Amino acid sequence: MISVTPDTFPLAQAFTISRGSRTEARVLTVRVIRDGVVGQGECVPYARYGESLDSVTAEIEALPPDISRQNLQHALPPGAARNAVDCALWDWQAKKTGTPVWRLAALPRPRPVTTAYTISLGDPATMEAEAAKQAHRPLLKIKLGTPDDMARLEAVRRGAPDARIIVDANEGWTAETYTDLAPHLLRLGVALVEQPLPVGDDDLLSEIERPVPVCADESCHDRASLPALAGKYDMVNIKLDKTGGLTEALALKTAAEEVGYAIMVGCIVGSSLAMAPAVLVAQGAEVVDLDGPLLLAKDREGGIRYEGSVMGVPGAELWG
Questions:
Q1: Is 96 in the active site?
Q2: Is the pTM of this model over 0.90?
Q3: Contact 280, 104 (CB under 8 A)
Q4: CA-to-CA distance for 245 and 189, rounded, in angstroms?
Q5: pLDDT at 55 over 90
Q6: Backbone phi and psi for residue 198, each to the nearest 5 degrees, phi listed first
Q7: Regarding predicted confidence, which is higher, 206 or 18?
Q8: From the centroid of its chain, how far is CA 51?
Q9: Which of 216, 217, 225, 301: disulfide with 233, CB 3.0–4.6 Å?
Q10: CB under 8 Å, gap of 24 or more: what pairs does 301-310 form?
C-alpha cells in the first residue's frame, strides 16, 4: 500500500523569492507499506511546475500499490509525485534488507557536507542585517531577481565581508539586467549565479559574456534537459523534486559530469526527510544547498543534525 499525508512546517521567518513569499512549508509525506515494513519519502509540490498538493496526491494515489521503483520511472514524469514515491521505495528496500541505500546504490559511504544558508529577498537594510547575523557561515545564498538588485548585493557583502556568496535570481532578470550586474558580481566576489533568465529566454546566455559561472535550475530537471543547456550554463542544480527522485538524480549527476557540468545539489524548503536522499547526491558536489530544515521553526522528529552549516548524515530511522 502507498499512503499520502499532507504536512505543514511553519518557517522560522517569512521566506521571499522573486515569485512571492511564504511562511510555511507544505509538503506531502508518502509511506510505502509492504510486508510489515514502512519506507517513507517527502516531496514539495511546486506551483512553478504546475503542481499542487491535490494534483500530486492524485498522481500518487493512481499508482498500483505494488509498483516497483523501476516501473515508477515510466509511470510518472519527473516531478514531486515521483520523487516522494521513489525515495519511499528506496527507504523501504533499505529497511526490508537491512542494507543502507548508499550501499544498495553502489555509492561510497556518505559524509557530512557543508551547505549554503539562504537569505531571502528583502530591502537592502533587511538583507544586510540578516547577512551580518549569518556572516559566520562559509557560504551564503542570496535570493535576488528584481531590476534594482545592485543595492542588495552591496548590502549583503557589507554584512558578510568574508563569506562566499552565490546568487539566485529565480528567472527574475532580463538579459540587460544580467549584463549590467555581471561585472559587479565579479567585483563583489560572487561565486555563481543561479538561473538569471527565464527558461524561455535563456538562449541569450549563449550570446552574452558570463564572467561568473551560471547554474541552470528551472532549466534543468532530468537527463532529457541536458542537450538544451549546451553553451548557456556551466553548472546544473539537481533537486529531487525536479528529477522525480533519487534514482534519476543520481543518473543526472553522472550524465551532467560526463559532459562537463559542475554540480550543485539544491532543495525546495522542506523537512529533513526531503533532504536525506539528497545527501547522497551531494557527495562531491561543488555547491550544496540543503538548508531547508535550518529555515523551519521546527523540523521532523529525528531530523538531520546541523552543526553551523555542516550537515550531518541522516540516521537510518529517518531515511535510508
A1: no
A2: yes
A3: no
A4: 33
A5: yes
A6: -60, 150
A7: 206
A8: 16
A9: 216
A10: 302/272, 303/271, 303/272, 303/273, 304/272, 304/275, 304/276, 304/279, 306/115, 308/136, 308/137, 309/114, 309/115, 309/116, 309/117, 309/137, 309/138, 309/139, 310/112, 310/113, 310/114, 310/115
Render pLDDT for 277-297 as a digit per residue (tens, 0 to 9).
999 999 999 999 999 999 999
- Rounded CA-CA distance 143/12 in Å is 17
The question of whether 232 is a catalytic residue gets the answer: no
Edge-to-edge strand order for the sheet containing 117-119? 117-119, 139-143, 164-168, 190-194, 214-216, 235-238, 262-265, 287-288
Strand partners, 6: 28
φ and ψ at 302, to 5 degrees? 70, 25
State pLDDT tens for residues 306-315.
999 999 999 9
Position 292, amino acid: G
pLDDT above 80: residue 18: no
Give the pLDDT of residue 147.
85
Identify the active-site residue in 95, 141, 232, 239.
Answer: 239
Tell me the CB-side half-sphere exposure of residue 138, using CA atoms within 13 A: 11
CA of residue 265 relative to chain centroid, distance: 6
* CB-side neighbour CA atoms (13 Å) of 82: 24
AA letter at 74: H
Rg (CA), the chain: 19
84 touches 76 (CB < 8 A) = no
Q: What is the pLDDT of residue 9?
A: 97
Of 308, 248, 241, 310, nearest to 271 by C-alpha is: 241
C-alpha pair distances (Å), 193 with each of 82, 166, 269:
28, 6, 19
pLDDT at residue 19 is higher than 80? no
Active-site pick, 143, 232, 242, 253: 143
How much is the pLDDT for 21?
A: 85
Residues in CB range of 149: below 8 A, 6 or more apart: 169, 173, 177, 181
Q: What is the predicted pLDDT for the residue at 144?
A: 92
